[in-house]
Amino acid sequence: MALTRREFLKWSGSAGAAAAALCLGFDLKPVQSYASELKILKAKESTTICPYCAVGCGLIAHQKKSGKLLNTEGDPDHPINEGSLCAKGAALFQMTVNKARIRTPLYRAPESDEWEEIEWEDALEMIAERVKKTRDATFTQKNDKGQVVNRTTGIAHVGSAALDNEECWVLQGIMRALGLVFIEHQARI
Amino acid sequence: MAGKYFFVDTTRCTACRGCQIACKNWNKQRASKTTQYGSYQNPSDLDGNTFRLVRFMEHPSKQNSMVWYFFTEACRHCLKPACQKKADQIKKGAIVVNDFGAVLFTKETKELEKAFKAIKQACPWSIPTWNKKDRQIVKCHMCHDRVAAGLPTSCSKACPTGALNFGEEAAIKKLANERLAAAKKKFGGKGEILDLDDVRVLYLIIDEQSKYRPVAI
Amino acid sequence: MTNHWIDIRNSDCILIMGSNAAENHPISMKWVTEAMDKGATLISVDPRFTRTSSKADIFTPLRSGTDIAFLGGMMNYILANKKYHEEYTANYTNASFILGAKYDFKDGLFAGYDSDKKKYDKSFWAFEKDENGVPKRDLTLKDPRCVFQLMKKHYARYTPKIVSSITGTPEKDLKKIWETYAKSGAADKTGTIMYAMGWTQHTVGVQNIRMMAMIQLMLGNMGRPGGGVNALRGESNVQGSTDHCLLFHIWPGYLKTPRASNVSLAAYNKKWTPTTNDPISANWWQHTPKYSVSFLKAMFGEAATKKNDFGYSWMPKLDDGKAYSWLDLFDEMYKGTIKGFFAWGQNPACSGANANKNRQAFANLDWMVNVNLFDNETASFWKGPGMNPDDIQTEVFFLPCATSVEKEGSITNSGRWSQWRYQCSKPLKGVKADGEIMVELFAKIREMYKDGGEFADPILNMRWDFVKDGKYDAHAVAKLINGYFEKDATVKGKSFKKGTLVPSFAYLLDDGSTSSANWLYCNSYTEKGNMAARREKKDPTGMGLYPEWSWCWPVNRRIIYNRASVDLKGKPWSANKNILEYKDGKWVGDVPDGGWPPMVNAAKTRRPFIMKPDGVASVFGPGRADGPFPEHYEPIECPVEKNILSATYTNPVAPVYGTEADVYKTCDPRFPFVATTYRVTEHWQTGVLTRWQPWLLETQPQLFVEMSQELGKLRGINNGDKCKVASARGEVEAVAMVTGRFKPFTVQGKTVHQVGLPWCYGWVHPEDGGDSANLLTPSTGDPNTRIPETKAFMVNVEKLGKRG
User: Structure pTM?
Assistant: First the structure.
């Protein structure tokens, strides 16, 4: 009988033996025993798709009770990669759990040589004001030939092939509703 | 003793380094500071943060002008581990072999700092490394925690092309023999399995061993 | 991809050219390996010997920018030696079409060229038509004015000797590869091409791909398992972001962006809806008005009415004949006409050609918004190399966003599979998901416009019901992308209530009864559920189509143009290549490209290439800006003083730019070496995500430049030495990787050296990592797509210091 991965996990989990082992294998006491407390066995699982190239490999993400990411690895049920991953895909965990991630909006004022941290509310309010100001100042209802164009060439957008489909659609919708024509992204380069 | 085996078919490896990073990911290891020194291979060798390393070696060749060999290297999990023999002389039980054949460096290797060099030298492939931060001897542990729970090792799971395989001895040896036959057919009779009777990590190569990894003389 | 990743296993010959699949799409090699296990041949053609080449049965090098010469030679071989699939070619392509008297080709130029405007008049490339307005055909392919014969004449010039002299590829290798690949023209064999930016990033990018598509058509490989033309797309959702058209020239679903001369919706639909007089051509784009109206209903909802042209006037219009592409955008920004800028999940300080120009352009902005996970060279441009913050007025906002596992939504892979991703962990405290940022920002803008402002209608009227309690809802957007019945309607004899999800685009209407934010995705989220989330692994054809795993556009068709996989009777060209068959009055297998009966049913059939007005594939492509047949031209920067195929040196219609930052130096002794750029497995694009990940940075820590041992000797450079690589536009420091994997080329009898370097580094992090290779690349590109020519340009390499 071919077990699916999920059935397999259930089966192997219930086979459970004694004693704990930490992942690095340094805490084996006694080492001949098995690990039933494998960290991922009780974690909540979700599936995801790799965010790098467009092969579209499947991954499983394990989540801690706190909602934090515990681990990611290839999804053996996925027909394209069947559990395998390249270097980048195998490192997916480290994109999310990463000390270098920026955790608050930043603002750089004119002529300033440093970033300042600002609140989300303030950042979005300030951006909205600037969008409106620039748009209103540069909006063109008619072009040189007198044709109706209802656009602004004073604001441009680039990105993003890393967004979800739904986000891409909303983003193009917003940019077009604002009247942008300079809308471009990774597909052009 | 039966137990688990790896089989590495070097003819299928594309050096995606999924295995190298999957190992880091499972073990949530630190990274070493590296520099570019004129090679795709980094870190330049196994180190305290790296249990598995894909080696890159290129050579001129008649066929297609070049060969570029990739060799995913880690502990061979010897049937009679020389490292264990060495360690036993100082502290018995610091290095052990579990019931499916994984050679395991326990926390007790912390007490073997002075013997580290000797243990490394005892290994025919110089695999053991010293982890400075944790102050102990480290290397591949065959993902014994995963394997015990019925899961494949993280490295073999990551391999897309069937270059790095893991499983029961009989199944792995069968696969190795099939692949050896296929390689001999494809590469004009060349092909051998290294150290078949001594280790739990079987490599299929089609050229001189020294063309895949530096060999100590 | 016309096919999909798993389908590669069905191939008998895999050509990897213009891509380095093992490096950049590593898991694709799983299916390449599986094909090879079954006896397939792998061919790798690349300027250098790569990770892909290491697994190839045949490897040969070619000089960057000479792919058309290489492939033109292959076409010559196929035609001269009758290796083509005659029945397929005659019936399913325009090879049989008769060209009008005005078509001509002389010395590298096609008829209709206006040298003042640097533009072609494409009317010179029209077909002869019969009294009904249908193109005249000669199915025997013998008429001297038919496409086949003119194509044969065109490529007869591409002899092995001439090709070898251009590409630097040994003649014996050329012949071996042409012969090997041409074998896939046999009915029981198929061959496939895996290409990527190595083909697109050239001034002849589109024609590189057309050249291969033509070969695939002549060999009868299109629409068939193990065949097709397969673009290996480089970002997880670059397929989806293209489908949803974050691009100036297209609206979602590849509808055209309106031009100023399209003064009304009626004028727009008339202009962009193709017509045909061929009674058996499906001409699928005839449905354009249904898709454009359904898109506008998705944009503006209730506010879009028949009376107001469904809000057509609210959508921005482009000037006729003007491009607003990436290169043009940065040209305008450099000139100071653009004041506000969103760089949303993109790092143009490193990713754009001639990146110095982009970096300087940022300083002309009033404000910039950068959305990303990590600090990067775009957001922090004001403190970058050569910048003085005191002089830079630009306000910059950095908005930190969630990672892919911290939010929910779908992405579309290269094989057109839209796959649902679940939220796998809570977002890091302090960051927001992109969808959330968009919705909150636009809500604020909209609030401000309620108090007045320029042309507020589109802002106030944009449909917003996908926002629930102020929150972005991915499922609600996904449903809108699919589309709803906006009122009770009866279509094709079926009645639908208002609010019902439209089952597929065949049910969309042009009267405002339906919405569909993207007609191509209509069928992706229906009353049956979220198709992208499906995980059933059934494979009824045994060919790896997995029709119930996720969802694939269009209408879950896994291999497009699949009705070309069968003969005129509806039988697969070969039993071992069966993905579709007409049996007992119906199609069995993949979702057919239209359900019409096979070609033998002359009354009811439709030709298989349903998206083309003539119903056949275009080996002759009269729509392209630079000619109907691909022709070899040298890159804008090249190492040779003449094009030995013709007096036309470079692509005569390629765009170049005129600011002081746009410098081009060809055959300049100061920049004697050909250069190309590429990526590495361990980093992604500019490295903005991966350079910050210690595990990945450890494996590829610093910029390197690969060069041959001969060039190393010439310049006194040893492996591991620090070097300077300079072009007419900029320079970078890199560590030399002196390798036998690069070899000098012999081009027009002379030795030509080439180097290559990855573009995944930047000055922000790591400190000693080096900067972007795009500081070197030129701002020119393909005249059709305007994709920059970053794959072939000229540089110098000098040693900077000792090893270590």
Answer: 0.96
